[in-house]
Protein backbone atom coordinates (compact mmCIF):
# COMPACT_ATOMS: atom_id res chain seq x y z
CA UNK A 1 0.00 0.00 0.00
CA UNK A 2 1.53 3.30 -1.05
CA UNK A 3 1.62 6.44 1.02
CA UNK A 4 -0.69 8.08 -1.50
CA UNK A 5 -3.23 5.32 -0.93
CA UNK A 6 -2.96 5.73 2.87
CA UNK A 7 -3.67 9.45 2.80
CA UNK A 8 -5.84 10.30 -0.20
CA UNK A 9 -6.73 13.85 -0.89
CA UNK A 10 -10.35 14.55 -0.09
CA UNK A 11 -11.01 17.92 -1.69
CA UNK A 12 -9.46 20.74 -3.66
CA UNK A 13 -8.37 22.71 -0.61
CA UNK A 14 -7.38 19.76 1.56
CA UNK A 15 -3.72 19.40 2.37
CA UNK A 16 -1.42 16.39 2.37
CA UNK A 17 0.32 15.23 5.50
CA UNK A 18 3.99 16.16 5.81
CA UNK A 19 4.94 12.48 5.68
CA UNK A 20 3.21 12.17 2.30
CA UNK A 21 5.01 15.24 0.99
CA UNK A 22 8.37 13.96 2.21
CA UNK A 23 7.71 10.56 0.63
CA UNK A 24 6.98 12.20 -2.72
CA UNK A 25 10.21 14.23 -2.45
CA UNK A 26 12.16 11.11 -1.47
CA UNK A 27 10.84 9.26 -4.54
CA UNK A 28 11.87 12.09 -6.88
CA UNK A 29 15.30 12.33 -5.25
CA UNK A 30 15.76 8.58 -5.61
CA UNK A 31 15.36 8.89 -9.37
CA UNK A 32 11.66 8.41 -10.10
CA UNK A 33 10.43 10.95 -12.64
CA UNK A 34 8.44 13.92 -11.42
CA UNK A 35 5.62 12.98 -13.77
CA UNK A 36 5.36 9.50 -12.25
CA UNK A 37 5.32 10.91 -8.72
CA UNK A 38 2.67 13.48 -9.68
CA UNK A 39 0.47 10.74 -11.09
CA UNK A 40 1.03 8.47 -8.10
CA UNK A 41 0.13 11.16 -5.57
CA UNK A 42 -2.40 13.02 -7.70
CA UNK A 43 -0.73 16.41 -7.35
CA UNK A 44 0.01 19.17 -9.82
CA UNK A 45 3.33 20.19 -11.25
CA UNK A 46 3.71 23.34 -9.17
CA UNK A 47 2.69 21.51 -5.99
CA UNK A 48 5.44 18.94 -6.43
CA UNK A 49 7.98 21.65 -7.24
CA UNK A 50 6.99 23.49 -4.06
CA UNK A 51 7.44 20.28 -2.05
CA UNK A 52 10.84 19.68 -3.63
CA UNK A 53 11.88 23.21 -2.79
CA UNK A 54 10.65 22.97 0.79
CA UNK A 55 11.54 19.39 1.73
CA UNK A 56 14.25 18.54 -0.81
CA UNK A 57 17.92 18.19 0.01
CA UNK A 58 20.56 20.64 -1.18
CA UNK A 59 22.33 17.82 -3.02
CA UNK A 60 19.25 17.31 -5.19
CA UNK A 61 18.86 21.04 -5.82
CA UNK A 62 22.47 21.32 -6.97
CA UNK A 63 22.13 18.20 -9.09
CA UNK A 64 19.03 19.55 -10.85
CA UNK A 65 20.32 23.06 -11.52
CA UNK A 66 22.99 23.02 -14.19
CA UNK A 67 25.76 25.47 -13.34
CA UNK A 68 27.54 27.37 -16.12
CA UNK A 69 30.83 29.21 -15.79
CA UNK A 70 31.19 32.76 -17.06
CA UNK A 71 33.24 31.46 -20.00
CA UNK A 72 30.49 28.96 -20.92
CA UNK A 73 27.83 31.68 -20.73
CA UNK A 74 29.92 33.94 -22.96
CA UNK A 75 30.43 31.11 -25.46
CA UNK A 76 26.69 30.46 -25.63
CA UNK A 77 25.99 34.19 -26.01
CA UNK A 78 28.53 34.41 -28.85
CA UNK A 79 26.83 31.45 -30.59
CA UNK A 80 23.51 33.26 -30.35
CA UNK A 81 24.89 36.58 -31.55
CA UNK A 82 26.76 35.00 -34.46
CA UNK A 83 23.59 33.23 -35.56
CA UNK A 84 25.07 29.75 -35.12
CA UNK A 85 22.18 28.88 -32.77
CA UNK A 86 18.64 30.15 -32.40
CA UNK A 87 17.24 30.63 -28.90
CA UNK A 88 15.17 27.47 -29.19
CA UNK A 89 18.16 25.43 -30.33
CA UNK A 90 20.25 26.80 -27.46
CA UNK A 91 17.55 25.87 -24.96
CA UNK A 92 17.59 22.29 -26.19
CA UNK A 93 21.36 22.00 -26.60
CA UNK A 94 22.21 23.36 -23.16
CA UNK A 95 19.14 21.99 -21.33
CA UNK A 96 17.81 25.38 -20.27
CA UNK A 97 14.18 26.25 -19.64
CA UNK A 98 13.87 29.98 -20.17
CA UNK A 99 14.74 32.25 -23.07
CA UNK A 100 15.05 34.98 -20.49
CA UNK A 101 18.18 33.26 -19.16
CA UNK A 102 19.75 33.31 -22.61
CA UNK A 103 18.83 36.95 -23.11
CA UNK A 104 20.39 37.89 -19.78
CA UNK A 105 23.62 36.10 -20.77
CA UNK A 106 23.67 37.90 -24.12
CA UNK A 107 23.08 41.27 -22.42
CA UNK A 108 25.91 40.57 -19.96
CA UNK A 109 28.18 39.54 -22.82
CA UNK A 110 27.38 42.71 -24.74
CA UNK A 111 28.02 44.82 -21.66
CA UNK A 112 31.42 43.19 -21.16
CA UNK A 113 32.25 43.72 -24.84
CA UNK A 114 31.21 47.37 -24.60
CA UNK A 115 33.46 47.77 -21.57
CA UNK A 116 36.36 46.26 -23.48
CA UNK A 117 35.74 48.64 -26.39
CA UNK A 118 35.94 51.65 -24.11
CA UNK A 119 39.21 50.44 -22.56
CA UNK A 120 40.91 49.89 -25.94
CA UNK A 121 43.83 52.20 -26.62
CA UNK A 122 43.45 54.75 -29.38
CA UNK A 123 44.60 53.50 -32.79
CA UNK A 124 47.69 55.10 -34.28
CA UNK A 125 47.12 58.34 -36.14
CA UNK A 126 47.59 57.34 -39.76
CA UNK A 127 45.52 57.20 -42.93
CA UNK A 128 43.28 54.44 -41.53
CA UNK A 129 42.56 56.21 -38.24
CA UNK A 130 39.48 57.89 -39.67
CA UNK A 131 38.10 54.56 -40.87
CA UNK A 132 38.86 52.90 -37.55
CA UNK A 133 36.96 55.64 -35.75
CA UNK A 134 33.98 55.24 -38.05
CA UNK A 135 34.03 51.48 -37.52
CA UNK A 136 34.12 51.91 -33.75
CA UNK A 137 31.22 54.37 -33.91
CA UNK A 138 29.19 51.97 -36.09
CA UNK A 139 29.86 49.14 -33.61
CA UNK A 140 28.60 51.31 -30.76
CA UNK A 141 25.49 52.19 -32.73
CA UNK A 142 24.82 48.51 -33.43
CA UNK A 143 25.35 47.70 -29.75
CA UNK A 144 22.96 50.49 -28.78
CA UNK A 145 20.31 49.15 -31.17
CA UNK A 146 20.70 45.62 -29.79
CA UNK A 147 20.34 46.96 -26.26
CA UNK A 148 17.26 48.93 -27.30
CA UNK A 149 15.69 45.81 -28.81
CA UNK A 150 16.51 43.79 -25.66
CA UNK A 151 14.89 46.43 -23.47
CA UNK A 152 11.80 46.60 -25.69
CA UNK A 153 11.46 42.80 -25.66
CA UNK A 154 11.75 42.75 -21.87
CA UNK A 155 9.40 45.69 -21.30
CA UNK A 156 6.66 44.56 -23.68
CA UNK A 157 7.24 40.80 -23.30
CA UNK A 158 7.30 40.19 -27.05
CA UNK A 159 9.91 38.73 -29.35
CA UNK A 160 11.03 41.35 -31.84
CA UNK A 161 13.94 39.64 -33.56
CA UNK A 162 13.19 37.42 -36.52
CA UNK A 163 13.49 33.76 -35.62
CA UNK A 164 15.60 31.33 -37.62
CA UNK A 165 13.55 29.43 -40.14
CA UNK A 166 10.69 31.89 -40.12
CA UNK A 167 8.70 32.12 -43.34
CA UNK A 168 9.25 35.34 -45.29
CA UNK A 169 6.29 37.66 -45.46
CA UNK A 170 4.50 37.97 -48.77
Distinctive features:
single chain; 170 residues; mainly alpha; 2 domains; elongated; Trp_repressor/repl_initiator; Transposase Synechocystis PCC 6803 domain-containing protein; Homeodomain-like_sf; Transposase_14
Short characterization:
This protein is mainly alpha-helical. It has helices at 3-6, 18-29, 34-41, 45-55, 58-64, 70-82, 87-93, 99-119, 129-156. The chain is elongated, with a radius of gyration of 24 Å.
Describe this structure in words.
Pfam families: HTH_Tnp_IS630. Residues 16-67 form the Transposase Synechocystis PCC domain. This is Transposase Synechocystis PCC 6803 domain-containing protein. With 170 residues, this protein is an all-alpha fold. It folds into 2 domains: 3-64, no CATH class; 68-124. The protein is 65% helix and 0% strand. The chain is built from 9 helices and no strands. It has helices at residues 3-6, 18-29, 34-41, 45-55, 58-64, 70-82, 87-93, 99-119, 129-156. Helix 8 runs antiparallel to helix 9. The longest helix has 28 residues, at 129-156.
Amino acid sequence: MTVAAQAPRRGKNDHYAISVRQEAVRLVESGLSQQAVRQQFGVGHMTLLAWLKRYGTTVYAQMRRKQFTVAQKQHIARELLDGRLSEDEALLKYELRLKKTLRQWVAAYRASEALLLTVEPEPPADANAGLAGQLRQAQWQIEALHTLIDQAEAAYKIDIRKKAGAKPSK
